[in-house]
Amino acid sequence: MIIKELRLRNFRNFKNIHITLNPKMNVITGNNGQGKTNLLESLVFLSTTKSHRINDDKKLIMIGEDLANIDCLYNDNIDKRISAVIHQKGKTLLINKNPVQKSSEFVGLLNVILFSPSDINIFNEAPRERRKVINLEITKVSKKYIDSLNKYHKLLKERNLALKRENIDNIYLNILENQLIDNQIIIINERNNFIKIINENINKYFKKLINDDLKINIEYQSCIKINDELKMKKDLKDMYINNFEKDKYNQLTNYGVHKDDILFKINDLNVNDFASQGQRRLVVMAFKLSLKDYIIKKTGKIPILLLDDVLSELDVNKQTNLLNCIDDNIQTIITTSVLSNSLKIINKELNIQTIESGNIIKNKEVIK
Q1: Do 248 and 225 have their domain in common?
Q2: Of 268, 299, 330, which residue sits at a domain end?
Q3: pTM of the predicted model, to two decimals?
Q4: Which helix (H) or strand (E) holds 319?
Q5: Same domain, 74 and 145
Q6: Is 298 helix (H, G, I), strand (E, B) or coil?
Q7: Which of 110, 119, 274, 277 allows an S-S link to 284, with CB 3.0 to 4.6 Å?
Q8: Is residue 220 part of a domain?
């Protein structure tokens, strides 16, 4: 998967920008506040139909304008064009200029993996934020997961409303619970498969990054024990039965996949409790690199890596280790305020472009 060109109109601080990209490694330089992160944000939006920085899409529109447009030409065996028009009442998503009816048809067509300095927060944030991370990655490769997750949250809302009623309809509650169980089986299995594939690859990247024999793994903390489908259905049913009084008292569903979590561990110790800041940063980078293997295994397609000013968080040796973890067949876009020595010494062709005040001022300088 290769991005060939990107055009932004009235997006953030970009009035009208057109950028062409190298199939391999691209470096976007510029001082802070010039729009480097905004550029990557537009690609994340095309991949997920959401910004990774804000919840209100309207804030992506340049001040004083009515709408913003993101347009991308990429190659996935054949050339494809996808676009997003963000307006005051929502957004319109287009594939080859044809509007799509459901965002699920659009998500993951352009598959990107974003590395950001804020990724390190995953360790000390609430479980909800870690669920968001795994949900985001799985939805990019599994339409079945998107469907089950959406149905689950709709049914969960209905069950919570039913628990608030003075006279609870147990027959209706049982119908809801059976449907919740069916969707949870799919969600749990997909999450478990995700963690399994990540764990197959994460250590090789961590070892390359840190040059140490420390072992890392991710532990999936599910609401029930992973087992065969019949046993899982029984366990989920028992979960609702055993917690009914608590649910009724609290007027909400206390247990289920909406409470799942993941734990990152180094040598079987919780990263959040025992790892240094530097180790945490490398753990999350190894995790992000492992996402590439997950996407390839699930789709057969190579995603695009976006590195948003992450090199500044590492010393030159760690920068070089990270860059050497990136295969030559993976298109990569790196943003940085300073062209570091690691970029100059690695044996990779670089396409360097500079952004200033929302404009490309230097285009296609290639060094090797």
Answers
A1: yes
A2: 299
A3: 0.92
A4: helix 316-324
A5: no
A6: helix
A7: 119
A8: yes
**Same domain (yes/no): 34, 125:** no
Among the listed residues 49, 58, 63, the one whose alpha carbon sits nearest the alpha carbon of residue 15: 63
* Dist. CA 220–CA 106, nearest whole Å: 28
179: Cα within 13 Å, side-chain hemisphere? 19
- 307, 119 contact by CB (below 8 A): no
Whether 364 has a pLDDT exceeding 90, the answer reads no
Question: In Å, how far are 65, 76, 277 from 213, measured between CA atoms?
Answer: 54, 37, 18
Domain housing 231: 121-299
- Examine the fold and report which residue of 256, 276, 299 is the final residue of a domain before the chain moves on: 299
The predicted pLDDT at position 292 comes to: 96
SS3 128: helix
Task: Tell me: do 222 and 360 sit in the same domain.
Answer: no
Residues 19 and 147 in one domain: no
Please indicate, yes or no, if residue 116 is contained in any of the structural domains. no
Q: Is residue 272 part of a domain?
A: yes
**Rounded (5°) CA angle 213-205-305:** 160
What would the pLDDT profile of 123-138 be if each residue is shown by its tens digit?
A: 999 999 999 999 999 9
- If we measure between CA atoms, which residue out of 364, 363, 358 comes closest to residue 42? 358
Which stretch of DSSP H or E encloses residue 216?
Answer: strand 216-221
pLDDT digits 0-9 by tens, 297-324: 999 999 999 999 999 889 999 999 999 9
Q: What is the 3-state secondary structure (H, E, C) of 1-69?
A: CEEEEEEEEEECCEEEEEEECCCCEEEEECCCCCCHHHHHHHHHHHHHCCCCCCCCHHHHECCCCCEEE
Exposure on the CB side of residue 267, measured as CA atoms within 13 A: 8
Q: Half-sphere exposure of residue 336, counting CA atoms within 13 Å on the CB side?
A: 19
Sequence-separated (6 or more) residues with CB below 8 Å from residue 291: 113, 137, 198, 303
Do 71 and 148 reside in the same domain of the chain? Answer: no
Report the chain's mean pLDDT, rounded to a whole number: 93
92: domain CATH number is: 3.40.50.300
